[in-house]
Amino acid sequence: MRQMAVWIDHDEAKIFHVEAETFDETTVHAPNHHVHRHPKDQETRIHEHPDDEHRFFRAIAGALAGADQVLLMGPSVTKLHFLRYAQRHDAILEPRIVGVETADHPTDRQLVAHVRQYFHNAAPRRDTAP
């Protein structure tokens, strides 16, 4: 069974495939913000392109292809936005998301230890039978 975890915020998603003794990590970066300057007030405003979040989530979903179970983690609402994206746009991925947890900014080692605990030492999660 291929179990993966995603730690996500508005800037990046770290995707971990964790096994008993090893893990690998892939990072997907969010599209760059577009900076607009208003000439009169010299105020800098950061605007996202309307499709930036959709492209970001599509790239994450692609990196999760082949996962049997996925744990979503992150410090704020981006993980919930990704879950909503999967519910609306990825009928294959959505039922494989077995958990959503709030996690601030753990180190990679802390995150991997938590993922091992979550998948290997805890009670079974949401049914993901094909």
Describe the fold and architecture.
The protein is of the alpha/beta class and 130 residues long. The protein contains three helices and seven strands, in the order βββββαβαβα. It has helices at residues 52-63, 78-89, 108-120; strands spanning 3-8, 12-18, 23-29, 34-37, 44-47, 69-74, 97-102. It has a five-stranded mixed sheet. A two-stranded antiparallel ribbon has the order 4-5. A hairpin with a 4-residue loop joins strand 2 (12-18) and strand 3. It is globular. The N and C termini lie close together (12 Å).
Distance between the termini: 12 Å
C-alpha Rg (nearest Å): 17 Å
**Number of helix segments?**
3
Q: Could you spell the SSE succession in H and E letters? A: EEEEEHEHEH
Mean pLDDT: 82
3D shape: globular
**Uncertain residue segments:** 42-47
Strand composition percent? 25-35%
Helix percentage range? 25-40%
Structural class label: alpha/beta
The biggest beta sheet reads: 5 strands, mixed
The overall strand count is 7
Q: Which strands sit side by side, in order, in the main sheet?
A: 3-2-1-6-7
